[in-house]
Amino acid sequence: MIIQMNLQHDSYDIIVERGILARAGEHLNLNRRVLVVTDTGVPAVYAKTLAQQCKESVICTVEMGEVSKSLAVFGQLLETMLNHDFSRKDCVVAVGGGVVGDLAGFAASAYMRGIDFYNIPTTLLSQIDSSIGGKTAINFGGVKNIFGAFYQPKKVLIDPDLLKTLPPRQIANGLAEAIKMSLTCDTDLFTLFEQQDIEANLEEIIIRSLNIKKSVVEQDEKEAGLRKVLNFGHTIGHGIESSEGMCELYHGECVALGMLPMCSEAIRPRVIAVLKKCNLYRELQYDWDKITQAAFHDKKADGSLVTVILVNQVGSFEIKTMECLDVIELAKACLEG
């Protein structure tokens, strides 16, 4: 299936097809120097399969996890391209999850003021969410995604077969973003989560989620308004994720918890039931001082105010500006109540 992201001069195709990694050369211009960026958590054969289809390739394998979204690793990618005489006609391909995509995309945006970038996401989280939309970033000073650029890929190849090597927890991690999109925009998708076998419907979940994000990005590429809906659950979620001592949780697991306070009491039991079904519900000891500090450094905050997404009914949402401390109190009451 081909899903087209319509962004005028920055339009591109998102191709969802089993086995497409082995045929990437049929869809991507690899007849040039290619920096293949992957990480230690991705089966090495994936990057090698892509590299074998390139005219000339350099594989750069970074450490798995958020630690690689740093200025140091970002600099290493740029230095690698410089040392291998990459020109503006060459390209970068991300073969990995969201960390790899964010890092590689940002490096592509910066090298010689921008060279071609392709994304081949290998996790459910990145296939559903981070691989499209053009947000690239690294972390700095304990603040997540604080340095970055909007830089659209030239094409995205999504191979559901690559998910076969993922452990169940990583599948659940990706499902959190799909649940997020169903709650704000797609009642039928949320019903699927409630009533259907998730594993049997994984490809449909990917495609429906991609179409939701595509529609939002096409209307608001640079997050001037509507695109904020994609941040549902992320203010508290990022606070949990960035707070010291809770970093053993994955991004999707944090977002799942962050969604609950933003849902009305009327639908919250349904949401909790779906999170439990997807192994995303956690009972934790929260350090609210650290979460508050991390949430206040969130780049979406404006002084003491933050824009949040509230869901009162499944399939619809409200964009609301609130005092940061009020958001924290709402989260405390929900998650500790």
Task: Please tell me about this protein's structure.
The chain is an alpha/beta fold. It has helices at residues 44-51, 71-83, 98-110, 124-130, 168-185, 187-195, 202-219, 234-242, 251-259, 268-277, 288-296, 324-335; strands at residues 2-5, 12-16, 33-39, 56-62, 91-96, 116-121, 135-140, 143-150, 155-158, 301-302, 305-310, 318-323. The longest helix is centred in the middle third of the chain and has 18 residues, at 168-185. It catalyses: 7-phospho-2-dehydro-3-deoxy-D-arabino-heptonate = 3-dehydroquinate + phosphate. Its cofactor is Zn(2+); Co(2+); NAD(+).
Features:
single chain; 337 residues; alpha/beta; seven-stranded mixed beta sheet; three-stranded antiparallel beta sheet; 12 helices
Residues in helices, as a percent range = 40-55%
Structural class: alpha/beta
Unreliable stretches (pLDDT < 50, length at least 5) are none
The major beta sheet can be summarized as: 7 strands, mixed
What pattern of helices and strands is seen along the backbone?
EEEHEHEHEHEEEHHHHHHHEEEH
**Terminus-to-terminus distance:** 44 Å
Strand content: 15-25%
DSSP strand tally: 12
| Rounded radius of gyration (Å) | 19 Å
Number of helices: 12
Strand order of the largest sheet: 1-2-9-6-5-3-4
Morphology: globular
In round numbers, the mean pLDDT is: 93
